Amino acid sequence: MTSTPHGARARARIEITAAIKEEARRRLADQGAAELSLRAVARTLGMASSAIYRYFPSRDDLLTALIIDAYDSLGETAEAALKASAGAASGERWTAVCEAIRGWALAHPHEYALIYGSPVPGYAAPATTVPAAARVGFALIDVVRDAHRAGELDVPALPRDLEAEAARMAADFVPDLPPAVAPACVAVWAQLLGLIGFEVFGQFTRIVEERDAFFRHTVGGLARTVGLRPADAAS
To answer: If you ran DSSP here, which 8-state letter would residue 208 be given?
Structure first.
């Protein structure tokens, strides 16, 4: 069947948008996000400078698209590991999801830097990035939630001065879990991303050599923090 002009234009727009984002990712790797320029991307692609603005009205719009793509790619990776580990012990599922996140980061260091590295000067991420950003965190929370439903979660202790904050956090994003779990989830999320960031950005050079074993050991400790039984613990 012959395609309509409208359909051809839509496909062309998808292809050109993909090409713009691919060139922008290449420039992120070569020059960093702070140096990203729509005009430079257009020049490399052989586009008129004015034409690229029909796809991305500003550099910030392009950055936002790249950020959402990176979050979604990482989220899909974490969710795939969660699904693939269904039926395994909670500690094993936790380790599987954490290792998937690490694997993605090591394979996409510049995109990891874009979403978890230093802020880009002059750029403020809009609220549209939040759903994609939340995916990886919710994959980890799903492991905790499933363990709780199975009666296998050891709820962490909570100091009195955190009780009100824990209740607020739980109401915001884990209303079906004990409030004490919420601060623990936030803490291990930050620690996991920092741990991976240290490896991605070279901070472990000449410090940690057996990085796979070190990572598994460390995420086992994070599992205990949220009340899970680590993958190497007896069931």
So the answer is: -
Q: Give the Cα separation of 56 and 145 in Å (integer).
A: 39
Could you tell me where the DSSP H helices lie in 36-58?
A: 38-45, 49-52
> Length of the chain in residues, anyone?
235
Nearest to 148 by CA among 191, 107, 177: 177
The letter for the amino acid at 186 is V
Tens digits of residue pLDDT in 213-227: 999 999 999 999 999
Instruction: Record the pTM.
Output: 0.91
Question: Which residues have C-beta within 8 Å of that of residue 186, sequence separation ≥ 6?
Answer: 169
Rounded to whole angstroms, how far apart are CA atoms 132 and 69? 8
The CA distance from 178 to 158, in Å, is 11
What's the one-letter identity of residue 213?
Answer: A
**Angstrom distance (rounded) from CA 150 to CA 95:** 18
